[in-house]
What does this fold into?
Amino acid sequence: MKLQLTFKNIVDSPHCVIRMNNQELYRGGVPADFLNNFEQLESDCVLIIEHINKQPSDTIVKDGTIIRDRSFELDQIVIDGYDLEELKWTSEFRAQDGAVYASCLFFGPNGEFVLKFSNPVLRWLLKTRHEKNNNDPHWEEDYNYYQQACKTLQQISPQ
It folds into this structure.
């Protein structure tokens, strides 16, 4: 499985841990771009991006207003070449203080972004989009056709 993440609005050198199914893929300063290839055998997947090591002193407040805050945002998730686009919002952010925020891509407090999905990713994308929008009753046929087309292309392409 190939995982690509893009982060934006990275303020004051925040740190994170990136895990897939409890396997730690990265620990350190939040990168603008992250890429990792790893073997994925499970069909049910959990991507966790954890904001770590933020201290109260990393939030600067003046006259009751936050004027500077160690933070970052998740901009894009691409898995096996498929941009999750709107489906990245099917996630939640679990702050360290116990608060849970649905559809939150902003990492202000320490806590975990959690996205659950299934492998193969294309099948999950098509199925989830159909379930959310009820707009593609033939999504499974489309998936099967795409899979067969890819196999055929691999057989005729020079290696």
Notes: Residues 45 and 117 are 5 Å apart (CA to CA). Helices lie at 121-133, 139-156. The chain has a mean pLDDT of 89.
